[in-house]
Every structure is written in structure tokens, then in C-alpha cells.
Specification:
PH-domain like, 7-stranded antiparallel beta sheet
Length: 133
């Protein structure tokens, strides 16, 4: 099996919304995330523990659903830097919703260029999981 790698931001319940930047690699029996800086975020996900790998519709995000693990059950890999959801310290009415809406628009705008890359990731992961890779 030929390896595949991409620069991504890993986002799960441990990393928070900003995520951690690093390199995602598909290996023979696992998906490995190697962070650019802090080694504590190094993550290896065995293919056998994956329930599903899919591209989140309308976004440049590869979502991995896990089973039988103590790790987070859902891990997202953003193929672009996650947009900020920051709002002013004393937000006016509707500012929080506006920040969320702006983040969604930003993600959707960066999706077309990343869609083929993420589809290839999903295809390769599914092949590896089924033993065809």
C-alpha cells in the first residue's frame, strides 16, 4: 500500500475548537497524526477501531467515527485551518450566531479545492479497512 500524507488540523474534545496542526498519514494498519509542535497530541488510530470515515458535507473536514476506544469517539481532521469562533468579550445580541455563521461560510468557501483530496483519503481508508489496500 502506498502511503498518503496531508497537513491537517486535528480537532476533538481534547484539542478544543482551534485544533492542533500536524501531518496525517495513512499507514498499513492505522491512521497517524503527528503534531508540528507538542508531542502530547501524537495520535494513532487503528483501522480496526474505525466505524466510519467520511467527508463532512460542504466542508473540508474528514470525520472519523470510532468504536471500542477510550479516545474521543469522533475526530475531525480539517484540511484548512479551522475558522475562529471568537466573539467579543461582551457580545451584543446575535454576535455569537454571527461568528458561527461566518465560520461556516469560510469553511464552505475553502471546500471546493479540498474536496478531491478528502475523497481520496476516504477511498484509501476504506480500501485499507477492507484489506484491499
Amino acid at each position: 500500500m502506498e502511503t498518503i500524507s496531508s497537513t491537517v488540523w486535528m480537532v476533538d474534545r481534547r484539542t478544543g475548537r482551534d485544533g492542533v496542526r500536524g501531518e496525517l498519514t495513512l499507514e498499513v494498519d492505522r491512521l497517524t497524526f503527528r503534531p508540528d509542535e507538542d508531542a502530547k497530541w501524537h495520535t494513532a488510530i487503528p483501522l480496526a477501531e474505525m466505524r466510519r470515515a467520511h467527508r463532512v458535507l460542504g466542508s473540508p473536514v474528514l470525520e472519523i467515527l470510532l468504536s471500542g476506544t477510550e479516545e474521543p469517539r469522533v475526530v475531525g481532521f480539517y484540511f484548512v485551518e479551522p475558522p475562529s469562533l471568537a466573539v467579543p468579550e461582551r457580545p451584543r445580541l446575535g454576535k455569537r450566531r454571527s461568528a458561527k455563521r461566518a465560520a461556516i461560510v469560510e469553511l464552505m468557501g475553502s471546500n471546493p479545492g479540498k474536496k478531491p483530496e478528502i475523497r481520496e483519503w476516504v477511498r484509501r481508508i476504506e480500501e485499507a479497512r477492507s484489506g484491499r489496500g
